[in-house]
Amino acid sequence: MGNGGTRRVGEPTASGSLNQFGALFEIYLDAVNGGSAGRRDLTESVVSELRDRGVSKVLDCAAGTGFPSLDLARTRGGLRDVRVCDGSAVMIRELARQAQRRGMVISELRPDGVDGLVVNWADLGTVTTRYDCVLCRGNALAYADTWTGRTSVAPKARVTGYVARMADRVRPGGYLYLDAPRTLDPVDASHPLPIDGKRIRERVVRDRGRRHWTVDFERLGGPPIRFERYSSLLTIDRVAIILDELGFEETSPFRLPAERAGFGTIIARKPG
Known about the structure:
Strand content: 15-25%
Radius of gyration: 18 Å
Number of strands: 10
Structural class: alpha/beta
Largest sheet: 5 strands, mixed
Order of helices and strands: EHHEHEHEHEEEEEHE
Number of helices: 6
Helix content: 25-40%
Distance between the termini: 54 Å
């Protein structure tokens, strides 16, 4: 692969750290969402879906570096109150940088009842407020327990427990927003991502009951950095079953406008 410079034959690919990936994550998000225009379109479609359901107070419990939460809070016609948390301190540090660039005060984004923004799903009970909607998108649920480098994926029972803890933060009559791949097959084969075909390459394959995801960032003046993780073979239909078991309504998957191809979305309603 080229990168505008040259890569010597046989030059090794460096194994990237989570700190490195956090710093590069915004570039990756631009790639998978079709650049700034694609991110804007996706944000507007999420806002539209939530506003149609009367949602104004949101907790994003897989906030990453802030997409789409920062956009939801600042898009014209956006949501009134968006709070964030994530299990990765690396991602939260990058989210704080992104917020600062936009002139946002990080304390405005803190979930009520929590001193910090780093909250694992198992500890969502420390968040005392209930929200109109709890958001967990970006295929985050499939990576339960693996984001810090574990190669064994979370069993179904543990994933169900995480969804139940998210559900506890939803007010009666509110919504839980989740997404996941539509099929067990890899969402993507090996291909260059659209931000720059010479800069980032993503590959997803099935590997002994898991998905194995690798993304290569090419760098000028150095070898590519490879970041890799495993995820469960969770599908959106399995997510629908979990939500049915938890007593949620409106659990049918659908394709959200501007969402990445191959993924399904559910915005399920909690009875109340």
